[in-house]
């Protein structure tokens, strides 16, 4: 194995420029230790994932443009041929996880990038590392999951073992579809149905609710897996709001049935509204101006000047997701919107418990 890589890199080592070049396959491969080669044949590869070269990384800058010492004539001829739509052979790439290094076809990759192409045909050989790192374990789990399900690569998890959970969930869904139709449903078909009728609606709801901001470093698939497990499979108490019970049916089959008739814009939002009354003590000289400024806020529904120990009574309607408490939402609104207004001396907030409102007066 060592001789193989010596052969690949020795001819171009002298041209190495450590300041401005595409990534070196050699440097990355050295971190992978023992490796196995897997031939994936001809594939269509996104150009943005081709980040380096096996032996020519010193000849191309960090944007994969040929450096000045390279032959401009050859590059121009290749680019001309590609622009005219003439047939070109697939480039040859080495793959390490989700990134690719050019073994043969550096000029074709450079020309494709310069012409604004997004993809290129390539013969791909994957380098699978035996190094026992979290990154490698996750990559191997994901690869096996995608091979079994044939689903898109966008399902990214950050915990080992979670792809196995998703696979088990799809097998349950396979049993459900078989029982509903009375005909055997194969695993690939069940995976496809699960993806479109369960995974995509749930992740759309999560995304629309902007819930990922509470989980830095986690992915959409992580949050889907967490909610799905605690909502549909676990009997232990959850750590997120109980309002989600009104939004998501308590079974995966029930959720699928509820989402089947809906288009993406019709998916329910993981949000609810809070009505609160804010009592404000002001600098008397600015009361009228303050009323106008407060009423201009989107969240403010009513502003009343009053007599007594306070000067203004303000009704607000705020929106919060199921992971934030009423108190947190109101506190943030007061800090970010109300208390920054000059002339406000003191505030007191009241949240109504039971409310009775006659028809035509709600809002």
TrEMBL record:
InterPro entries: Dimeric_a/b-barrel (IPR011008), ParB/Sulfiredoxin_sf (IPR036086), ParB_N (IPR003115), Tscrpt_reg_AsnC/Lrp_C (IPR019887). Residues 43-137 form the ParB-like N-terminal domain. Pfam families: AsnC_trans_reg (PF01037), ParB_N (PF02195). This is Two domain fusion protein. It comes from Desulfotignum phosphitoxidans DSM 13687.
């Amino acid at each position: 194995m060592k001789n193989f890589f010596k052969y690949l890199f020795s001819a171009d080592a002298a041209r190495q420029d450590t300041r401005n070049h595409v990534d070196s396959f050699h440097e990355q491969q050295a971190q992978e230790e023992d490796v196995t080669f897997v031939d994936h044949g001809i594939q269509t590869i996104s150009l943005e994932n081709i980040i380096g070269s096996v032996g020519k990384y010193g000849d191309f800058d960090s944007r994969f443009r040929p450096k000045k010492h390279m032959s401009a004539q050859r590059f121009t001829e290749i680019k001309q041929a590609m622009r005219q739509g003439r047939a070109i052979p697939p480039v040859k790439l080495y793959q390490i996880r989700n990134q690719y290094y050019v073994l043969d076809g550096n000029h074709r990759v450079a020309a494709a990038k310069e012409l604004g192409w997004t993809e290129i045909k390539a013969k791909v050989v994957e380098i699978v590392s035996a190094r026992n790192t979290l990154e490698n374990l996750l990559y191997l789990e994901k690869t096996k999951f995608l091979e079994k399900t044939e689903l898109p690569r966008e399902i990214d998890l950050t915990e080992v073992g979670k792809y196995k959970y998703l696979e088990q969930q799809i097998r349950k869904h396979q049993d459900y579809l078989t029982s509903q139709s009375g005909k055997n449903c194969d695993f690939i078909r069940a995976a496809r149905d699960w993806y479109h009728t369960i995974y995509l609606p749930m992740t759309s709801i999560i995304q629309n609710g902007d819930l990922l901001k509470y989980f830095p470093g986690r992915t959409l698939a992580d949050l889907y897996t967490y909610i799905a497990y605690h909502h549909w499979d676990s009997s232990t108490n959850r750590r997120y709001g109980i309002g989600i019970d009104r939004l998501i049916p308590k079974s995966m089959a029930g959720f699928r049935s509820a989402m089947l008739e809906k288009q993406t814009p019709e998916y329910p939002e993981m949000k609810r509204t809070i009505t609160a009354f804010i009592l404000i003590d002001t600098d008397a000289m600015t009361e009228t101006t303050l009323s106008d400024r407060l009423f201009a806020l989107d969240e403010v529904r009513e502003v009343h000047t009053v007599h007594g120990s306070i000067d203004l009574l303000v009704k607000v309607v705020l929106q919060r997701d199921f992971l934030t408490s009423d108190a947190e939402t109101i506190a943030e609104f007061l800090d970010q919107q109300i208390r920054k207004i000059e002339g406000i001396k003191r505030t007191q907030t009241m949240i109504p418990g039971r409310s009775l409102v006659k028809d035509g007066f709600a809002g």
